[in-house]
Here is the input.
Amino acid sequence: MNLADIPLFSMLKGRLGYLSERQKIIAQNVANSDTPRYVSEDLKPFSFNARLQAQQQASAAGTMTATQAGHMSPRSDRRAGGGTFKSVKTGSSETTLNGNAVVLEEEMLKLSDARMSYDAAISFYQKSMGLLRMAARPPGRG
Here is the structure.
């Protein structure tokens, strides 16, 4: 059984991929906090509803599933979460004289928010794996 075929794990994988990319972009913003004319970036917010609708449409469309690994080649668009994320320039509340629009305090808030969301998603993933393990055990054991 492939965990990527379970919709819950597919959505969690997408969320974790989004949060990883967001952390990279925030780190890039912090690294360029002294670069002239640099404008901070962020990712478009992860929409759980949009991801859920895409997952439901894919399963309702009757997409093929491999019963054995050698029957079909994997899809090429299976990156973190099955897609790419788009970064957008974010307006800042402050701009320095050299045109830099990175506010370190705002970036640290974004970073802590991304970290808390990542920790919550990992915790949910671990709990879900625990439930799967419990369901897979033979009756009367543990």
